[in-house]
């Protein structure tokens, strides 16, 4: 075999490739993607490529158009390698899979572990001495595994086939902690004839921007405004396929000057970090002028009278919900708004006040203010109070109790009347109606139910239309059963807040005729929302009670509640001389709940309790404490956006770890997989919920870890992963450090690096509660342990569990970690 090289004295180009192909009978070629893009548009080059048996490429992404065109002419193959690992061993793929790599999992030791991005996995090399010939990264060291930083997605139906989706370095982490892999969007936008390359930016910013590198020189290009208009349809197309938090606004487009091109590798790949640094002045100017831009984009407004204020708030809130119809009393969070989508609305509200030079403090117009005023009408009242301040006192406990009672009564009066019909005969195996199966706990619940011999079928009601697909992804990520192509599982798209769950009559009748057990687990976990934003969930609870009361088999009803429903128990001790642990019993005092989330759970539990009495149902409420990551699986993870992962990862950046945590005298966290097993046992082992039990029965169980440890026992394990340079400080010192970083001008957009900044109010409340003498809410679990053998033998959280969660958060022990920062990656 002969090897033909292009002339080393000449720069690599399409012309030099064509000359090399003409110089000898070449059977295959290795060509960088930048040249292949030119090949795809050259008729003469395409004719030459028809004579080749194979063409290999790597080092950067290849556009879909170029890839498809070339793969029609020859066998196009992708390849990858890195400085540390050399070339990765792969099998030859079919012609149609030109953009996939087929890794030999049987002889390579490659593992693909779920990343924080849905459907995206990171390649990990796991040391195996029997596969040493394919694991150059482990030569001469004692590493046990190596994280490549390369991201992949699975082939739809071919095992071991993976598409390279970029690198962890490519992923943009916004200030709210959400993530975006921009590669596909960049390729789409760059397909415009005017655009040479596109790059998303926005790390540690609230929203993304795009930088467009244009074809040709400055003299031949139209004005920037015309370029934006010309390219905008492709940006909109990219936005449609992206979550709202990652959508680009027209004000966030930067057009490069011809004298300042993107920085690239020798193979034409984009040097992302270096290019972002090159354009740092333009990026800073764009984000620093956000308020000014917002005031320009906001239509003329006069908010000095109520009608003008009302119209403007409606306009701002419509933007947060996608510009659809909106009336004054609609809750924008029920319409899909979230922490990301409300940011432009907040900017516009502030900008309008700024543009009118109204002398009021806009610092109170924050996400918290929007969460507390989720309807346009309530925001009008809030802003009206700022414009015309009046003396007012804070909400009193009497006011809060009255408000909670009024909400409860509104739903209680709609409970169905008692029904005395005979219950249809029930078989030996049950059909379970499960809500929220695609969530974290829901995935484990589904897996546990499907393993039970006494469960015949699980019907999953989910809000998402793609629930089956999401379930496969969620369970695969957690290492759970993901084959649902049988009759034991049915996925039904439903809206619990609608009559008959929004289902057609035949589907509703089918579910109603078969359900033996209702396991209601669907509830948004968001401690920022007010009680008003949980109205759809309360309506859904009421609809499920009506369903249970009318269903043929009079199903038993299990509701997964929360410790938040009784979080003020210790605060109320002086009023009732009660025991320190919350008993497993029903409480009539709704003020025991904290925040809108806990209040909604308390009202829902209240409704179920009274439904068992009034409607002769068999009910079970489980108050669930803090869920943790999986107990002994390397798959799945404790969600990084929750308070404990955020605290630990922020401590890594601060170089300081709290020695104690307020309101956490005992670590009673329960791993999510263990919690699902316990719930299953409570559901099937409890006498008042067995099929042979009579109506009108109810039970209350508490669920946390009955065996506890102190936070101090976990600190050494955490420190071993954060490094010896991480000092142990008091929680107040840690909070002061965090607040200082938040105030620091250089760190004002550092929420991605310091995720605890997003929960700053939460951590402040912990410290303030401690200062007031508040104590941790602890749950009594005697009845739960009697009914659940798994709970009775559950061990406390220990160092090995903590170490596993730390690794899953990307914090390997410093004694075995191998840093890839600064190492050059190359797709060969």
From TrEMBL:
Organism of derivation: Diaporthe ampelina
Family annotation (InterPro entries): Adenylate-forming_Reductase (IPR051414), ANL_N_sf (IPR042099), FAR_NAD-bd (IPR013120), NAD(P)-bd_dom_sf (IPR036291)
Protein name: Putative nonribosomal peptide synthetase
Thioester reductase (TE) domain ranges (all copies): 434-679
Keywords: Phosphopantetheine, Phosphoprotein
